[in-house]
Amino acid sequence: MATRMVSLQARQLLAASLGLVAFLGLTGYALDRAFVETASSGLRQRLENMAWAVMGGTELLRTGDIVPPETPQDPRLSRPGSGLYVTILADDFRWDSESALGRNLPLSDALAPGEQRFEGPIATPNGSLYRASVGMAWEISETREAKLTVHVAEEAGVLDRQVSVFRRTLWGWLGAAALLLLGLQILVLRWSFRPLRRVVADMEQVTAGNAERLDGAYPTELTLLTDSLNEMIDVGREQIERTRNILGDLAHSLKTPLAVMRSELESGAQGEQLRETLGDQVGRMNEIVAYQLSRAVTSGRQTFAAPLPIGPCAEEIVTSLEKVYAAKNILCEFDIDASARFYGEQGDLMELMGNLLENAFKWAHHRVLLSVRTMTIAPNRRAGILMTIEDDGPGIAPDQVDRLLQRGVRGDERVHGHGIGLAIVQDIVKAYRGELQVERSRELGGAAFVVRFSPSV
């Protein structure tokens, strides 16, 4: 059972959604960590500032007695169990804020003068705490000083609640943003893929026979695709039409030789006359079949044909012709653009050049010239070629061109041939949507056959 492929729109939506979720997730995580660190740093700064404020509000008498601050720095210090606690320690002195009454708190460590600490969360029987501690030494006299330690502690729940509120707000807004962006993404993807859906719909119309080509207005990115599809459609129809015409032409062409043979047999002719008539008609039928088969195997223009270099094919053909026409001592010259390429079947190229070069060798006195040039219209378009085959023979009169291009007509009945070579060339050129022109060679003076295959997609 064939696996159904996921649509391009679904793939794009899935990939974009995964990217969106990953981006928002990383963004949320980064913002969460930044807030937690900022909140922790703020808590530490606040507790340390309160410790210094408590230290500043504490008085040291000359007798060595310590007087705690009369006014608490925060109202919570006056409320038992409020979550904010202060302890002042000296050698034989300890003072706890009213909020620490009845609480078992880890606020008994003495710090060396100038030492500062921030710790937390510290587990206690009353819950976790964050603690800031400051150590200081006060000089009572030249020989006596008092060492004080101030501890300020706050329940971790205060920071946890701040972080919890921030997280709820953060992820709520990020979730809403994700849904909004996802919806917007779906709309953008549907809008972006609308031209592709239109191409599919138009192609279905062509397949159903309701349209001949893809004639819609498509974005620039799809123009190459739609042009290629249109060319494939046209080539396919031309192939079908050409095959149908070939079969019709073959049937029609064979009627006359068959009728002649039947008439001869029914007339009672015998002997040499019968053999001569049958031989002529069989030869004629053989020519007709060969010609129609040559037309049938012509592949024609192909959208995705591999480019064929022209030079090697030309050398192979000329090597054979030089052997056939060795007695004429023909000099064949090449002027072929190295970048020139034929987009089609090698058999078609060999048939095209073979017939034209053979015709040139047949009529030339001493020289034949094959020239091939590249024709381009844009860097991203397939290049065309301009092929010219010239000879120094008698040439062709302008009023004889159309007649010579007809099937079965020879320029001189005394010259061996079937008269179908140029007709085959015409069929190949037409199949590849090219142009064939017969002119007078300016350089050699004889005939010049010019074949033009225009640039295309």
UniProtKB/TrEMBL annotation:
Name the domain of life.
Answer: Bacteria
- A GO molecular-function term, please? phosphorelay sensor kinase activity
Chief localisation class:
membrane
UniProt keywords (A-Z) are: ATP-binding, Kinase, Membrane, Nucleotide-binding, Phosphoprotein, Transferase, Transmembrane, Transmembrane helix, Two-component regulatory system
The cellular component terms of Gene Ontology attached to this UniProt record, alphabetical and capped at eight, are: plasma membrane
What residue ranges are annotated as transmembrane? 170-189
Where do the HAMP domain residues begin and end?
A: 190-241
Name of the protein = histidine kinase
